[in-house]
């Protein structure tokens, strides 16, 4: 018997959670697709963040709901604007890795005031997107902890 209190056990479990245990499938668009098609993808896939890749499937950018809303204000033809014009681009993308602690990823979401992170792995000339970590994934971890499923 360790003599640890319930909250000590909870903290111990929380500090062991890894990104890979909670990440979701990434939804990716190619950098030359139109803003219009990205909006369709966001609705159809029911996500708030899209990751943008180049023709070698390497991460080049991120698109949020507000990025797409902003691009939709005014009278531009959304089918003729490629997403690489409006995305947040590398190297200004905040990323995480599968083996990162969930807590560290959560801290990045708070510090950068963003909704999601691409989970990446190193490739020859950049980074490949292998997952998506969002505030929803963090909420799921919280619920799991509270319901004692990990203890
Ligand atoms: P929204 O804009 O819909 O509220 P976010 O708060 O996630 O969604 O995004 C705010 C801004 O930060 C957007 O311009 C978006 O492109 C950018 N952004 C989102 N995720 C990331 C990320 N992982 N790294 C860098 N910038 C990001």
UniProtKB/TrEMBL annotation:
Alphabetically sorted, this entry's keywords are:
CBS domain, Repeat, Transcription, Transcription regulation
Q: Provide the transmembrane region boundaries.
A: none
Domain of life per record = Bacteria
* Keyword presence, Protein transport: no
Span of domain CBS = 22-78, 87-149
What name appears for this protein in its UniProt entry?
A: Helix-turn-helix transcriptional regulator
Species assigned in the record = Halobacillus salinarum
Q: What is the lineage of its organism?
A: Bacteria, Bacillati, Bacillota, Bacilli, Bacillales
Which residues of the entire protein appear here: the answer is: 59 to 209 of 209
């Amino acid at each position: 018997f360790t003599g640890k209190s319930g909250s000590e056990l909870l903290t111990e479990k929380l500090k062991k959670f890894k990104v890979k245990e909670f990440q979701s499938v990434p939804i990716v668009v190619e950098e030359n697709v139109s803003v219009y098609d990205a909006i369709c993808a966001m609705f159809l896939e029911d996500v708030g963040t899209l990751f943008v890749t180049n023709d070698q499937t390497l991460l080049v950018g991120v698109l949020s709901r507000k990025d797409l809303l902003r691009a939709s204000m005014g009278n531009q033809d959304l089918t003729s604007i490629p997403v690489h014009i409006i995305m947040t681009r590398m190297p200004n993308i905040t990323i995480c890795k599968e083996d990162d602690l969930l807590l560290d990823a959560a801290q990045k979401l708070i510090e950068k005031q963003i909704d999601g992170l691409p989970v990446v792995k190193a490739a020859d000339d950049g980074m490949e997107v292998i997952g998506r970590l969002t505030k929803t994934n963090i909420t799921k971890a919280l619920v799991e902890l509270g319901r004692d499923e990990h203890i």
